[in-house]
Amino acid sequence: MKLSAQEEYGLRCLLQMAIRGDQASLSIPEISKAEGLSVPNVAKLMRLLRIAGFVKSVRGQAGGYMLAKPADTMLIGDVLEALGGKMFGDRFCGRHSGLEMVCVHNTDCSMRALWLGLQHMLEKVLFKATVADLLQKESFMQGMLETRHGHLVLPEPVQAKLANA
After folding, report:
1. How far is CA 2 from the centre of its chain?
2. pTM of the prediction?
3. Mean pLDDT for the stretch of residues 15-21
4. 35, 46, 145, 155: which sits with the fewest CB atoms below 10 Å from its CB?
5. 138 contacts 162 by C-beta, under 8 angstroms
6. pLDDT band at residue 11 using 50, 70 and 90 as cut-offs
């Protein structure tokens, strides 16, 4: 399972703006430089974020993009869906039907139950975390996840890295 580059980079661009606050604006080249991304890629991501209502464009000398609403009201799940959609969406089975018009497992699919369960667990985490939460340090975020979702435990090498940070 992978998070797409579009979702990762789009969220990072949004975080660059959140770091500077609700009233600051950033140009596409400024975001591009800060995140080490190409200008065309950032332009595409900012367009998606603007269409979804997370950022607004500002014209003029100090123009660019700014947050359209406070970072503490932007749910990570909403941002990721705007950038790439759900991992298991309504049309998932239709896109994976092989050579047939409808998947051969359409009436009884144990994998569908697995993907729906996984989607539900992802949503429980992603729709409780905000862009403002991601402005915190990694150790704070891990603690917050453990508090909200006690069963979430990072692999030992990651926990060791956090402990030494």
Report:
1. 12
2. 0.78
3. 92
4. 155
5. yes
6. very high
Residues in a beta bridge with 64: 58
Q: What are the structure tokens assigned to 149, written together?
A: 């979702």
| pLDDT over 70, % of the chain | 81
Q: Kindly report, residue by residue over 95-125, the tens digit of the pLDDT.
A: 666 777 777 667 777 877 887 888 888 888 8
Angstrom distances, CA of residue 34 to CA of 12, 15, 76, 99: 10, 11, 21, 45
Least confident of 1-5, 58-62, 74-78, 152-156: 152-156
DSSP 3-state of 67: strand
Selecting from 1.10.10.10, 3.30.530.20, 1.10.3720.10, 3.30.1490.20, what CATH number does the domain 5-131 have?
Answer: 1.10.10.10
pLDDT for residue 153 is more than 60: no
Which DSSP helix (H) or strand (E) runs through 60? none
**Residue 56 forms beta bridges with which residues?**
66
Phi then psi for residue 55, to 5 deg, are -130, 160
Domain ranges of the chain: 5-131, 135-165
Pairwise CA distance, residues 67 & 53, whole Å: 9
DSSP 57: E
CB 77 within 8 A of CB 133: no
